[in-house]
Known about the structure:
Blueprint: E1 16-20, H1 27-37, E2 38-48, H2 52-59, E3 63-71, E4 79-88
Helix pairs in contact: 1-2
Amino acid sequence: xxxxxxxxxxxxxxxxxxxxARALAPLMKxxxxxxxxxxxxxxxxxxxxxxxxxxxxxARQAWQFDLTAHHSITQAQARILEIGRVRHV
Length: 89
């Protein structure tokens, strides 16, 4: 595991197998970061609050991705979004 404490915009593409971020940006922007930093078959895990479905809908306007929404144990309406195969539409 490598933890990087820097602005994601300043980091060279990582080719990471797993990417996670908490309270960083809307899912639309996280998809952009995922496309840059995940390896082809990598997985991103993003905690999202009660508006997660709206963020998914908005992101799907510009991005295609596989999605599994896991229930959060800390907030009933929140989800942990497991995203893979991110590609721009």
